Known about the structure:
Blueprint (H helix, E strand, L loop, with lengths): L5 E9 L6 H4 L19 H4 L24 E4 L11 H9 L3 E4 L4 H8 L4 E4 L2 H11 L5 E5 L4 E4 L2 E4 L4 H9 L3 H6 L2 H8 L7
Parallel strand pairs: 1-2, 2-3, 3-4
Antiparallel strand pairs: 1-5, 5-6, 6-7
Amino acid sequence: MNKFITHHGIIAPLDQANIDTDQIIPKQFLKSTERIGFGKHLFHDWRYRDDDGTQENPDFILNKPEYKAASVLLTRRNFGCGSSREHAPWALEEFGFKVIIAPSFADIFSGNCINIGLLPVVLTEDEVEELIQFTHQGTLSVEVDLKAQTVTAGGNIYSFVIDEFHKHCLQEGIDSIDWTLGSMAEISAYEKTIPSWR
């Protein structure tokens, strides 16, 4: 995956709490174990008026022209709740999102995001509300700086907290398996100390 250092993008406000993984990527589209082909089904039941996905719902935020190129999703608390399906972050990433900002995330969803280089940013309820109000005034650009752990938008700077291990993995563009493989010399040396009978 790509290294995450900073990101500049347009915010798409999805003003709803408790969005679960079945809303992010409905179960009928989970027919592949590869990480491709899910973006077109992101928020399918909200984006389209038909089952085949040929009639866009013009009222849905991601179908509005000003948000077609949005790469930062702004939403409410408990985003990504429900099942542990990895397909939800895959769909968001393939659609073009690099950052998701919310007051809270489901733990497994958050971890799945980090493992593919998608940054979940936790801001307070009041900060998210302020950003949503800014989007009502027009298209809002944002800068996310992982090293400084800041979000800059609407002339304001917001700070966020992230676990140091997750921050390291995102900055280096590695997932948990890559991190483990980086210690293969030590692992091999340890294995050589294990008696053959074990």
